[in-house]
Amino acid sequence: MTEQIRLRIDSRLADEAHVVCREIGITPTAAVSMFFSQMVKLRGLPFRPSDFPALEEYGVTLAQATSAEDSALAEIASARKAGRLRTFTGKL
Question: How far is the C-alpha of 27 from the C-alpha of 20, rounded, in Å?
Answer without folding.
Answer: 10
